[in-house]
Amino acid sequence: MTIRVLLADDQALLRSAFRVLVDSEPDMEVVGEASDGAEAVRLAREQRADVVLMDIRMPGTDGLAATRMISADPALAAVRVVILTTFEVDDYVVQSLRAGASGFLGKGSEPEELLNAIRIAAEGEALLSPAATKGLIARFLAQEDSAGGADRDPARAERLDSLTVREREVLVQVAGGHSNDEIAERLDVSPLTVKTHVNRAMAKLGARDRAQLVVIAYESGLVRPKVD
Questions:
Q1: Domain extent at residue 38
Q2: Where is the HTH luxR-type domain (predicted)?
Q3: Which site among 41, 136, 190, 205 is 20 to 30 Å from 152 CA-CA?
Q4: Domain final position from 137, 161, 194
Q5: Tens digit of pLDDT for each residue in 37-58?
Q6: 104 contacts 54 by C-beta, under 8 angstroms
Q7: CA–CA separation, 85 vs 9, rounded Å?
């Protein structure tokens, strides 16, 4: 099965470099290029993209707004968005994850990291590697704590009441960036059981994927941020 990739970045030279890299893989193909967010949303629908590599800062409709539009459109429910960033301390990163992005990746990442990110996202998993994703989420939510938590959603904590004890345990492990196999080993259950608990937690909490589960775990206070 070929992974259909859409490139959204206002820099044509960078899009060209990504296209060469992606098209060199036998299991991937670039199906479109967008220079702004509005075009990315349109092409995601028209080209039936599986994964969108989305730059945050673009003229007109930026990557954050485009991610929200893709996440809110039932016709694009299967589309996964990977945010491209320079890894600057940027509130847009966490906002994008909340909006439905599956994760983010630095533009300076190694080619193999980018290709691996596309495959992870296409499989429906959260791009929690490199580990900087989890670290940045923790950092921003810790800043929110110091600011009084004005950006928190109180309903998130209440919705945790719908989870079973085991689902909470699994959610804590997911927030730690652990894979299903790792969680299974830690909790002494099968990977299939872990996957079932993850899916049930996602359904109960209204999470699009594992990345949003991580955000919810921090926002609700189930997992406390640790800042170095």
A1: 3-137
A2: 156-221
A3: 41
A4: 137
A5: 999 999 999 998 999 999 988 8
A6: no
A7: 11
